[in-house]
Amino acid sequence: MGESSSGGTWRRAGFAGAAIGVLAAGAAAGVAVERLTVGRSVRRKARLALDSADPYGGLRGTPGRALADDGTVLYYEVDEVGEAGEVGAGDRAEASARLRRLFGRREPAPVTVVFSHGYCLNQDSWHFQRAALRGLVRTVHWDQRSHGRSGQGVTQAGPDAVPVSIDRLGRDLRAVVDAAAPDGPLVLVGHSMGGMTVMAFAEQYPELMRERVAGVAFVGTSAGKLHEVTYGLPVLGVNAVRRILPSVLRTLGAQAELVERGRRATADLFAGLVKKYSFASKDVDPAVARFAERMIESTPIDVVAAFYPAFAEHDKSASLPALRDLPVLALAGDRDLVTPSSHTEAIAALLPDAELVIVPDGGHLVMLEHPEAVTDRLADLLVRAGAVPRPAAAGTEPGES
């Protein structure tokens, strides 16, 4: 008899593991050097120390829950104007200083900024931008289905589970908007998968876009052709892995407990890969790197498997021209290996009036690596979108037409 299908799948998984191991050799070599010089117990103590002192990801707002059209519960939080919050917002003087730094003498007008996070992250990935805007502008931060505090996607569970589509995520964003910001102007901000979510939202709800959306920010994202990304690795190796990776992920997703144990056993290699593909700066804050690592490692393997196929299929370039009349920010790190800056440049090419910003020495998690550069450009977008009133023309007083 021939080889069983399960045996064949596991053999392919073995091949994929070997190929991925070879392709990750650069990161692994750096980790191996560290292992020769730093004991495992020392590294573990360092991680625990970072975790206990980590100030990142602790900002919380007023919680809420939206119901997606398939019954999935989506968790979001709202930071209202004037609310200091319990962590990190500081006193009124500190808020005034932030207001002056970001907007000068201009005060934010009523608007809700909705932040959508990327693959294997959660709403806390916007920590620095949230801290800067907290109490100054109304913001909504939400966890994509199966991420963070949101429920597992209903249609991704059980024997009839189906992969996630980017269009599905666009409908999820609509559910969050309806629940957390049912009226008033919106500015939509998306990083990576979150930017794709915004594109799907724009394609599916053009009337809502025309009536309510005042601006859009795309951060480290892509409108399509992700199947061409090499992640800074040899093309032939990447293509070989890409062909078998979906089936491997499905197999591993069915053995989630085993995979999570393996993930813990290879924590050092995992941390090295996260750093390589998240950041470009050599001097990134270790606490920030550990913060990113914790977010990514908290994403279960079955969730990784359910979302992965969506990226190869993603193509929203045809929908982008509908945003031509809106203020748009297209921003990326110049050394992003996951969604290269050329993808952001392609978005800007379809939107000639968009502000294109390529952040030097920036990786995929540019909003964590260079937070002020991203926050300042978002503040500029709010001005362009009319969320922050423009200064009065020379010779006129505020309020004069």
TrEMBL record:
This is Alpha/beta hydrolase. It comes from the Bacteria. Pfam families: Abhydrolase_1 (PF00561). GO terms for molecular function: hydrolase activity. Gene3D superfamilies: alpha/beta hydrolase. It comes from Streptomyces cinereoruber. Keywords: Hydrolase. InterPro entries: AB_hydrolase (IPR050471), AB_hydrolase_1 (IPR000073), AB_hydrolase_fold (IPR029058). The lineage of its organism: Bacteria, Bacillati, Actinomycetota, Actinomycetes, Kitasatosporales. Residues 112-371 form the AB hydrolase-1 domain. Signal peptide: none annotated.
